[in-house]
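dumping this here so i dont lose it
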């Protein structure tokens, strides 16, 4: 029987759902009253490790881990993520926790606000500052987006542990080919419609990036206006937004097994952040963005206003794949058949900030 673990980070704690067969059970909140912007389910070790970036209004941000699927949690005695004193910066929140490939079983990356990257070599218990990104020559001209200035996406390449791609709001995509020792902007083809020059070297407002299951050089990007695909690991980007009701949105996810298959949740506009057409629909491409299909079977059919944020649309690694999204209405929807049909599995939660799912023993 397939057992799926679903973690739902909200503005007021973490909820953990477990599916055995067709039934879902949730517990929580863990970390009550803390905003949980980032969660990782690290299955590279014998016992999966959960990593959570919590943000307490009283105690500040921290990274917690659990080696018993959330039954107990450990917080390091010293802050796991901390800026060096010479930067003059302090951690506001951890936006992303990303386990690297199986070739680096203890490496975890953390993307933060202020926009910086940290690297752990002990499974996420402590992190080192990746200084070259912080000291990139363009940094003084980075501007915060509506959600702040943050490294919110990290993509690694299981073929080459030294290849790392990050997305920065609102500086755009940056790539390293040498394990973080140097970085280069990688935004060719991505438009910044809100700038006087719509095609700058950097300054794009990237909302999320996902990596294709079959072609690891193929990336999908949801921008602040624009959906794009790269076939060369981010060196160049092509607009694939035709056929969507809106190319504005926050989230993008790739199918875990099927090449050329990805999902987005279109939003009406940056000035009207509700589902496109006020309809709750996930859109799927099965041909790398050449065409899109709206998926709504089992979703609300009337006017709907639940916005899906950048990390709140994800897949598990089952076959067929589970697809999940949460919204700012506090609803969580799940599909167990690649997105063909959906059902509501949780409601009346706080704002959903992120979801992660995986098959676990």
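and the seq i came up w/
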């Amino acid at each position: 029987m397939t057992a799926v673990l679903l973690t739902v980070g909200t503005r007021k704690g973490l909820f953990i759902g477990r599916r055995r067969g067709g039934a879902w059970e949730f517990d929580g909140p863990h970390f009550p009253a803390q905003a949980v912007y980032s969660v990782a389910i690290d299955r590279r070790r014998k016992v999966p490790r959960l990593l959570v970036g919590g943000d307490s209004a009283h105690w500040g941000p921290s990274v917690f881990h659990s080696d018993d699927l959330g039954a107990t949690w450990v917080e390091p005695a010293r802050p796991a993520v901390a800026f060096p004193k010479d930067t003059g910066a302090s951690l506001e929140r951890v936006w992303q926790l990303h386990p690297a490939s199986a070739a680096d079983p203890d490496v975890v990356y953390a993307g933060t606000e202020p926009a910086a990257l940290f690297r752990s070599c002990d499974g996420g218990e402590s992190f080192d500052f990746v200084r070259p990104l912080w000291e990139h020559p363009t940094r003084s001209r980075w501007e915060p987006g509506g959600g702040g200035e943050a490294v919110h996406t990290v993509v690694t390449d299981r073929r080459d542990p030294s290849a790392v791609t990050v997305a920065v709001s609102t500086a755009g995509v940056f790539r390293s080919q040498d394990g973080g020792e140097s970085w280069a902007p990688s935004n060719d083809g991505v438009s910044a419609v809100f700038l006087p020059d719509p095609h700058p070297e950097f300054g794009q407002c990237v909302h999320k990036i996902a990596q294709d299951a079959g072609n690891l050089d193929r990336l999908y990007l949801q921008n602040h206006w624009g959906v794009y695909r790269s076939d060369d690991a981010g060196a160049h980007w092509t607009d694939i937004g035709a056929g969507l009701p809106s190319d504005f949105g926050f989230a993008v996810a790739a199918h875990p097994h099927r090449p050329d298959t990805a999902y987005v949740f279109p939003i009406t506009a940056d000035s009207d952040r509700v589902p496109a057409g006020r309809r709750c629909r996930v859109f799927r491409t099965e041909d790398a963005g050449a065409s899109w299909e709206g998926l709504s079977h089992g979703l609300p059919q009337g006017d709907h206003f639940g916005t899906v944020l950048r990390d709140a649309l994800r897949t598990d690694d089952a076959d067929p794949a589970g697809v999940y999204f949460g919204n700012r209405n506090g609803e969580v929807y799940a599909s167990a058949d690649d997105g063909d049909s959906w059902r509501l599995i949780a409601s009346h939660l706080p704002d959903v900030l992120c979801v992660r799912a995986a098959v676990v023993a």
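The longest strand covers residues 160-169.
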